[in-house]
Amino acid sequence: MNRAALRRAALTEWGPLFGTVRRALVRKKLRAIPMTLAAVLLTAVFQIVQNQSWGFDPVQRIGSVQAQLPWWLALLRTPLSLFVPALDLPVWGALAQVLLVFGIAEICLGKWRTLAISYVATLAGTMYARLAVHIGPDSVFGLPPGAAEVVDTGPSAAVVGLAIFVSWRYRAWFTCAAVVLAMAVEVVIKPNLAGKEHIAAVVAVLALCAADEVRRRRREARAQEDVRRAQRSGAPASRS
To answer: What is the pLDDT of residues 122-178, one digit of tens each?
Structure first.
């Protein structure tokens, strides 16, 4: 494939998405991503605090999720768990993920939808962890009992979910497929709690994508029907 063909392929894949993000940043600059900046700041604060002798326990009490916790407590902690960096991973990775993926999603989807999809993806992983421990290690879908004690924090499941939803919405099919394939390869190579939770997030967000697709097609069909009805009656079409 020559350079011109690669350029055309890249424009087809990322052109609409890049254009949306670029226009928002040129027009509003950092004001286009206030929620993302707040999330980056919150993640950095949690990282600083949990590395202090006095701060580790408070952060764990408000944002640490484990499969062995009672349901109600896990649900209470799940929203903040997105912004508590995993202890075994470099914090700059979490900050970069939040800034890049949350930022793109906030511009393309809006802050509330971004937060909702992030929560659904993270909650799907949390729910799966409990189910997998219950199933046990004898099943390909299960996990050993020790996984119930693993501290489960960080934005990775939310990042995976947002990447899939945004690429689906903007018809970046190769990117969407690449993210799904990468998560599948991850769980094959390293079938641990994090990898399997990412697959749960993928499944949950793909379900959201399918529901969104159905909703959009129905809305388009209604709009087309309004146009046809207006044309038959000679009246202007209504706007939805």
So the answer is: 999 999 999 999 999 888 889 999 999 998 899 999 999 999 999 999 999 999 999
| Mutual angle of helices 111-135 and 34-50, in 10-degree steps | 40
- pLDDT (average), residues 211-236: 82
Q: Residue 162, CB half-sphere, CA atoms under 13 Å: how many? A: 30
CA distance 140 to 29: 46
Give the relative orientation of helices 173-189 and 156-169 as an angle to the nearest 10 degrees. 150
Q: What is the pTM of this model?
A: 0.90
Q: What angle do CA 98, 11, 35 make, to 5 degrees?
A: 20
